[in-house]
Amino acid sequence: MDVFQAALLLFIIIDPVGNAPIFSTVLRDLDGPAARRVILRESFIALGIMLATLFAGSTLMGWLGLTQSALGLAGGIILFLISLRMIFPLPGGVFGENEVHAGGASIPLVVPLAVPLLAGPSAIATLMLLAARDPQRMGSWALALGLAWVVSTAILLAAPWMGRVVGRNALEAVQRLLGMLLTAVAVQQFLDGWKAAFP
Hints:
Elements: H1 3-14, H2 16-26, H3 32-64, H4 68-87, H5 113-118, H6 121-133, H7 138-157, H8 159-165, H9 168-197
Helix pairs in contact: 1-7, 2-7, 3-6, 3-7, 4-6, 4-9
């Protein structure tokens, strides 16, 4: 897997198109500049969490006694479940109604925007798997994460404008298309984990 393939995979997993309506719902009580500041802050927090996972993932796997095959199987299952929710979304979005509430005009911190919407379990599992498979290419994986993060953050910042110009139906169609692509990636990741566990 090269840098651009990894970046595309991470972009699909972060799913900024699908998360844009959720961000809009959580930040509905804030004006434009304040909402953009929160989006940037939460995006940077998510990036920090994902970078920490990327560089400390192998150590964490060692502490927990996890193998690469177990991580591949678990990551494939998680990606598959999320891809199904992208194709057949729940009323409250990909992560359900419990993740999209904002009481009054309160400003969310870390949860639910940075975690689990951006730095979710699937992104964390994928980054740990990349680091475990090829630890000599950590710079490449960090670059891939950076590319995916920049594009995702730009989409989230432009979400209100995109919603008005493109329309909600078009955004939902794109989310379903990304979900179909993610389904294939999830199955391939599961098969790779299976082959590693049962050669």
